[in-house]
Amino acid sequence: QVQLVESGGGLVQPGGSLRLSCAGSANGFNFYAMGWYRQAPGKQRELVATAIPAGGTNYADSVKGRFTISRGNAQNTVYLEMNSLKPEDTAVYYCAARLISTGQNYWGQGTQVTVSS
Question: SS3 sequence, 19-40?
Fold first, then answer.
């Protein structure tokens, strides 16, 4: 069973920065794509950024140039560096892992990010 634990959320002023971290408990994360999704109140969960083991990354248009996703050397951790935060970035952010061979998805419990003055 894959378990994902996020940390690093909080309250930040517009224009500020936060760094989210996610650690996976299982072995073999070099076979998983990992990423971040977010869900704002009253909205559907949406993709923020993903990173595959080979190093490729993908970003939602709304965060390009502001957010950076990266993976740790052990591949079982993923980070999201968020800069120039806007109020519309306020959401619960979820870490996700997808086993590439089967498409099975795993989710963390979520961490709240609030951007407000």
Answer: EEEEEECCCCHHHEEEEEEEEC
